[in-house]
Inverse folding.
């Protein structure tokens, strides 16, 4: 038996937009008497609500309060009772059935599925970490309030892995979060991992590179100290990337070099420092040199 009610099978729309739900009764023999037509909305939970009714004598009716000010009939006709829904909401998704009361065949109907879409709000950020031996989160990526749910992938040359979680919103949208983890080393500082978000509403994948931020202590040592450190000026320059120490320096014979900001003066070595110096000179013991606000402190390098 041929379908007598012609509708569109599926439509897509976005919040705040309008959508036309078309319906037309096809009667080849002209023997069917049309009595009334109704539009019935079935949200995803299976509830059935009349949102628009047209009767040739009693006129139009809009029983559902949430649709009353947003639904209109495009024609005052039983044969073509198409409607328009304005100011769409995410919660308007569902099945819309155009149902005729007819004689003598009884009810005839056709159903359109309305799919509400939402573009995700994409973002990615770096998480500053310290070099270590445990796997930690170094970058995060999020596709918030999208419908359907987005897919997040990571493109990376560093050795790591990722985990993804989803959260369903009350309006049917989905937020997807992904975390990239690795065991951070000093060589990972400044390297890039790229977040890629793919979703139905996007023309192309959203891509965002994230530069890793790994902090690590400076590697400072002196070897074969042969001369007394004297009170003399030296200049500090900006710290190296990833270094947390305010100033790093190396002793080369009779000069002390440092990196930081500002002008600093190194005082004469203390008696304890001279003993350590003599020991380091005779046994070539590596020492660590630390710059303090009041001067220079030396201790064995560990």
């Amino acid at each position: 038996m041929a379908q007598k009610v012609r509708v569109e099978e599926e439509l897509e729309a976005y919040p705040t937009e309008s959508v036309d739900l078309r319906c037309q009764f096809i009667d080849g023999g002209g023997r069917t008497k049309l009595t009334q037509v109704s539009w019935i909305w079935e949200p995803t939970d299976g509830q059935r609500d009349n949102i628009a009714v047209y009767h040739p004598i009693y006129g139009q009716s809009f029983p559902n309060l949430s649709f009353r000010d947003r639904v209109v009939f495009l024609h005052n006709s039983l044969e073509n009772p198409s409607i328009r829904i304005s100011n769409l909401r995410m919660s308007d998704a569902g099945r819309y059935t155009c149902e005729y009361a007819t004689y003598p065949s009884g009810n005839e109907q056709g159903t359109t599925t309305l799919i509400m879409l939402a573009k995700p709000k994409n973002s990615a950020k770096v998480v500053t970490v310290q070099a270590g031996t445990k796997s930690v989160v170094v970058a995060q990526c999020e596709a918030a309030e999208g419908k359907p749910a987005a897919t997040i992938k990571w493109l990376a040359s560093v050795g790591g892995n990722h985990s993804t979680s989803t959260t369903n919103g009350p309006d049917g949208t989905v937020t997807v979060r992904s975390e990239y983890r690795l065991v951070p080393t000093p060589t990972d500082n400044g390297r890039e991992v790229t977040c890629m978000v793919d979703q139905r509403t996007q023309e192309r994948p959203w891509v965002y590179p994230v530069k890793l931020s790994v902090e690590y202590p400076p590697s400072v040592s002196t070897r074969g100290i042969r001369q007394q450190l004297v009170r003399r000026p030296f200049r500090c320059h900006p710290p190296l990337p990833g270094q947390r120490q305010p100033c790093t320096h190396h002793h080369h014979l009779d000069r002390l070099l440092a990196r930081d900001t500002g002008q600093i003066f190194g005082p004469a070595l203390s008696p304890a420092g001279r003993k350590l110096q003599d020991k380091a000179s005779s046994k070539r013991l590596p020492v660590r040199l630390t710059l303090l606000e009041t001067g220079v402190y030396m201790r064995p390098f560990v």
Summary: The longest strand covers residues 106-116.
